[in-house]
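Chapter review: from sequence to fold.
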Amino acid sequence: MECNHEMLQLFLDRELEPELVKELKNHLARCRECRQELSRLKLMWLELEQEEELDLPPELPFLRQQAITAAGALSQMSAGEFSYWQSQKLAWEPVATAITLIPGPRTLGRAARAIGSRIPSALEVVGKKGLRLLFRGRSQ
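The token string follows.
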């Protein structure tokens, strides 16, 4: 039997017929190169079978809890209660979360909260009727 690396792979996969297995074992007893190749293949399979543990970011539990809280709040609202401001808040929430991950998040976070806390009161001044008039053309 000549050296055949494909046959080594078939041997590891247990796809060889019993006659060929005997021939291959006899060949492996005589051929150092094929024994080394078989060892390399076995090691590679062992490495592939082991699961790697990923390093999870420390803020992941916090972000998960935020998503759960936001989803719970949305599920409790009826369609009529969902205002323009709430939709804008949801649209900008990922940006606000991203800002907190930038170096110096306290400064930017405080500014975002200060601006964000004033927007609802400004929209209330305009009033629901004003918003309906403003956005009536867009919904049609």
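Two observations follow directly from the output. The chain is about 80% helix and 0% strand. The CA atoms of residues 28 and 35 lie 6 Å apart.
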